[in-house]
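From the shared-data thread, chain only:
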Amino acid sequence: MRFLLDLRLKWLFVLNKKNKSIFRSWLQKHKYLLSERGFSLIEMVVAVGILIIIVGLTLGNYPKFRDQTALKRTAQEVTSAVRQAQSYALGVKRYFGGTGNCSNIECFPAYGVHFETGAGLNQSFIVFADVPPADYLYNFDEKVEEFTIQTGDRILRLCGDSDCSLTELDVVYERPNPLVSLSGCVGGNCSDPYSYSEASIVVGKAGASEKIIKVFVGGQISVQ
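Structure, as tokens:
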């Protein structure tokens, strides 16, 4: 626009050099045009530099934001599964199948969630029906639903009270018992598991951020 204005001014000056009053009148009428300025090279460089810094900061923080969002989702999925087992038990959900007293008939068992940390087993967890006679442990034929972690996170550690060496953990709700059964074992020796007053499921990626889902014997659940 400034270039066109300069050309127009030169043209007017040539045509009106013999009549300077007309030229001065036009300048007085259109003097606001002379005050218009475009961006200088320095201003353009500064603006582009600021834009590059903003984009760089945004893209640099995106992987961290993505991982934090995925970790939060994983913790929510674990918490939802535990609450689902609690809801099944307190709501007296019917179950058909399995072994024991539920074999080929309907029954109303306790419900729980089974966790493991072994290779290939720490990518999922199982909601199960603890069919009568209840042993408060998961057996292979008691599966109700299996949840696979899709975010790339894993079950890193299982803790009973202050012991974080557990390889398996079962959280079981049984109506009308208000207390939760928290049983764990080490190294697959689950024939005689330990009982705890508090259990923790630690999820995340090795060497990165973690989330801790705590389940208390009184039934409370918290995420840290």
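Residues 61-223 form one domain.
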